[in-house]
Amino acid sequence: MRDLYSDFVHSTHSVAQNVVCASCGVIGHDRSLYHTLRTDDLSLHALSVPQDAYVPFDFSTGYADLDNNRIMVEKLGVSINGDVQVCDSCHRSILANRRPTEALSNYRWIGDQPDELSDLTWIEELLIARAHLVGRVIRLEERKATSYFALKGHTILLPQDTTRLLDLLPMPLSSLPDVIRVVWAGKTPPDQNLLRSHFTVRTAKVYTALQWLCQHHEDYRHVTIDEERIAAWNSTEIATELFESISTVAHPSVEDASRSGFATEDPDTEEIDGDIPHTVSGFIDVNNVTRSPDASTLYRAAQLTQHVHSAHRQNLTINVVTGNTILNEHYVPSYFTSAFPTLFPYGTGKHIDNRRPKELSLALWIKLLLRHASRYGNITPIMDVEC
């Protein structure tokens, strides 16, 4: 037992450290899998960005040997004394004078998030995105006497059949319930005055973010800012339709119990006869969430027609766009960069780039993002909550 404990402590301490590969930016913990090079090592020239490749941001490191040769590295992988850490896989490619497939210089550069895109609320991020790949069901409940905006339990993500990228932004506030639903769990209803502030949109912040994206993000080059919609908004707007569509669950304790702790019961025992007991949580669809999208569209069109006729207007035009081809994440380069502009501020670093000598699989691309030492894998939370 003493030897087992000693081995456990030794193994734990040996990986209780962060080591970053300057080539691919992936974070690791075992130093034996990394190699140390100097900034003037000629083998690092394999990480040089081609002269004809445009990088829309400054990727200099402050080391002349790297910057003068357009060598792109993750700064967290370079120590203050000029040691460059490279993982085993990238090191083998570099020694063979080949750019590693996983390297940031292999058209995987993304860039730091600018001030214009920072500090956006979860609703503001939805309004400026060109696509919404997942719908969200968020459960909120009161956790403190002074806080009415806390998330407990889970957030459910529902894949959406996205057919097109939006070219007119921001999206209307009335469209938010199409991509996100909020459920309040608690015996007492939420204090609307306290909760309302968390459904607020800052018009100037949204407008500034869209202006920056249209100027710098390669997927937003042909996006048109809806100036009329922006002008019609007040300095702060409330997402009224989303706020008023909150569903309520009065007794969440049973669901909490079913999703907490460890499963310790063995169903294959003599004490359990017949079906295994289970608990079910459900919501009453009072807001027609499950209604067919086509039916909802026709219902809205009928309401709009009735409103126009009641106002004695005859200039109603409904534009119907045909076609239902669903965008495929495997073949559309802008699929992710258009949906998450705060994570990809310049639209670069796509999972598909024809300039790469060797194709980068979608699975590997996602894996590299999630393991990146910087904020790439730290997916921006959809709301600022106390978890």
Question: Would you give an account of this structure?
Answer:
There is one protein chain. This protein is α/β, with parallel strands linked by helices and 387 residues long. It folds into 2 domains: 12-95, no CATH class; 125-293 and 326-353, no CATH class. The chain is 26% helix and 13% strand. The strands form 5 sheets. Strands 6-5-8-12 form a 4-stranded mixed β-sheet, with no helix packed on it. A hairpin with an 8-residue loop joins strand 5 and strand 6 (150-159). The longest helix is centred in the C-terminal third of the chain and has 18 residues, at 293-310.
In short, what is this structure?
This protein is of the alpha/beta class and 387 residues long.
How are the elements arranged and paired?
Layout: H1 2-14, E1 19-20, E2 27-28, E3 34-38, H2 64-67, E4 83-87, H3 88-95, H4 122-128, E5 134-141, E6 150-159, E7 168-169, E8 180-185, H5 192-196, E9 200-202, H6 203-216, E10 224-225, H7 227-232, E11 236-238, H8 240-244, E12 247-249, H9 253-258, H10 293-310, H11 334-337, H12 362-370
Parallel strand pairs: 5-8, 7-10, 8-12
Antiparallel strand pairs: 1-2, 3-4, 5-6, 9-11
Helix pairs in contact: 4-6
Would you report the number of β strands?
Answer: 12
SSE pattern, N- to C-terminal: HEEEHEHHEEEEHEHEHEHEHHHH
For the sheet with most strands, the description reads: 4 strands, mixed
User: What's the Cα radius of gyration?
Assistant: 26 Å
SSE-based structural type = alpha/beta
Beginning-to-end CA distance, first to last residue: 38 Å
Uncertain segments are: 262-286, 377-387
Give the fraction of residues assigned to helices.
25-40%
The number of helical elements comes to: 12
